[in-house]
Amino acid sequence: MPQVLPNVPLSTQVADQLRHRIADGEFPVGSRIPTEARLTDELGVSRNSVREALRSLVHAGLLRARAGDGTYVTATSELAPALHRELEHARAADVAEVRLVLEREAARLAATRATAEHLGALDDALAAREAAGTGASYAAADLDFHHRLLDASGNLLLGELHRGTGGVEDSLLRTTPLDAEFTTYRVTTRPLDDAHAAVVTAIKARDPERAADAVETMIGLAETLAGRADAAHGPVAGGTR
């Protein structure tokens, strides 16, 4: 700990420091933070203080503990988890409209702000979607694409708001099939692959309006697939059919 503040519990100070490091990008969303033992040594505090700090950040929605696998960053601020809780009972159509607005604006901004690193990450995400051989790997690659798109906007708040709405996770749960059905499913989703690629092409062309329109086409196709999945199987409850 660089500085110990009197009358402030060490666990609170540790939590605040980790919160700042997450917000500054040292621990990006999806990354695993150091172990309790390593943080204890690094910060010079007791293991109990570190454990309490991590517990508070899990409760706040910034971290998620995975049994036997460590603790992972799920948000860069309390905004996304808080918004997600507020939207749990919102109309699905309203949430879908908000997501469309956020991704359209993200694509529009990315067309003028995306760096070579951002573009490379989008290309990698497209390649991972194409190479996916299972429903789980495809869903993970598709989620990564949408996160990379928001990152490319250069606006951290847009990304937080998008994560707060649930992003595209619920649509993926409804549309991504079991592995036995995956090959057939991928045949039907080729137009969606083209739509994702069109978004990246427009961003690379530095054409904001074309990028925004491409996102609208992409999301429209995704919603159509989600509707077909609901009709064929019924809504997914708890991520299972």
UniProtKB/TrEMBL annotation:
The keyword Electron transport does not apply. The keyword tRNA-binding does not apply. This is Exu regulon transcriptional regulator. Transmembrane segments: none annotated. Signal peptide: none annotated. Residues 8-76 form the HTH gntR-type domain. InterPro entries: GntR_C, TF_FadR/GntR_C, Tscrpt_reg_HTH_GntR, WH-like_DNA-bd_sf, WH_DNA-bd_sf. Keywords: DNA-binding, Transcription, Transcription regulation. One of its GO terms (molecular function) is DNA binding. Pfam families: FCD (PF07729), GntR (PF00392).
